[in-house]
Request: fold
Amino acid sequence: MDWQSGRKLKDILNKRAWGIVAITLVARAAVCQPVLPAAGKERLYIGTYTSAASRGIYQSSLDLAAGTFGATNLAAIMGNPSFLALHPTAKFLYAVDEGGGSVMAFSAERSTGALTWLNQQPSGGAAPCHLVVDSAGKNLLVANYTGGSITVFPIQPDGQLGPATAHIQHPGSSPHAHCITLDAANRFALVCDLGLDRIYCYRFDSAQGTLTTNSVPWTSVPVGAGPRHLAMDPSYRRAYVICELNSTIIGYNYDPQVGVLNLFQTISSIPSGWNGINAAAEIAVHPSGKFLYASNRGYNSVAVFAVDEASGALKAVQQQAVGQTPRHFAIEPSGAFCLVANQDSDSILVYAIDPQNGTLTPSGQKLQISKPVCVLPIITQAPQPVMALRSLPAEAVEIDISKGLSSLTYQIYHAPALQSRLSWSLLATGMRGQTNFILTNVSSSGFFRANVLTNY
Reply:
């Protein structure tokens, strides 16, 4: 057995793609187990309300080995960047200015994360509060809360925002568009309108940057529920909506062919019998798809639910006490930690996630920052995967990747020799999150030299 760095392959491919980790495994034995590698690192962008001491967007980091924060600095001065979104290339960052009625574009320096202002556009309505970049990286979609409208902006090659290509005003006297989400195929946009108790569905054309009313234009929720945010499971087969005003979570099966939601469950985000004032806020599904999390402002908790794999049904598991007014939280991409932004206790707290049952345990780590209301974690150094190789009958080999992430894609390469100057051949590209590969041993030399690339 020989464990090597695969440096040449890494250096070559780093010229083509950002974020590649390469490791090499050579095995002659039936089973080969390498030593454990170091954990990864993530960059954090933090959106805030600037009514107190905060001045805009802040930047910090998270060490995935220890769950500790790095140094924090002011990344961009702007008013009320209450929600942030990253471009798929990670080259650009977008933020709402909730108080100013505009959206901002920034370039993000790859190595340091430093932000440089590019331009801004009026959001098309008062109090923009949520935005998303489409998976093609061509458009930014924005929800305007007080304005009760949604707007689409084209993203130029340099990251700047062009003039709006679509704008839809919701009807009535009190529309409040609070969230806009796209499905996996980039075909439909789902919009939670808290004021109208509806989840609107629009057909989305990424090439033209347009929205048109779907054949089933909306799904109604109970009167007074106040749908706030929507989270899809990793397979995009189910959608979960958190309702701010009645503290419930509604589960839907999602039909991606026609963009229709079909109800299967409603469950409370707070314990039964609690009669205090509460406003539910954020919702997220764990990268594994096994757990769902929801934050409560008033009860001041993050609720943990187990997700039934077959039906998607939720079962309450835990109410983890957090700081005051947890407006937002993020399950960072590795799925190891939950980062909770407590608006009124001026802190971001770290909770370790149990991979078996999803429960949260306070780590004791705390980032003090004024009025944090959005946390955006980004992988900058992926946890290096661990490969175990096992020979199988009929000239086959099994490669199993541990320390892998369900949000990443892995590629298996093979080299036919042990020489220092290697020629690598691609054997397999996994689906997102795939960590087990059964391959034909193409080597005739009695050994199998493999290399795994992590793409993020």
Remarks:
- Confidence is low (pLDDT under 50) at residues 1-37.
- The two ends are 29 Å apart (CA to CA).
- Helices lie at 7-14.
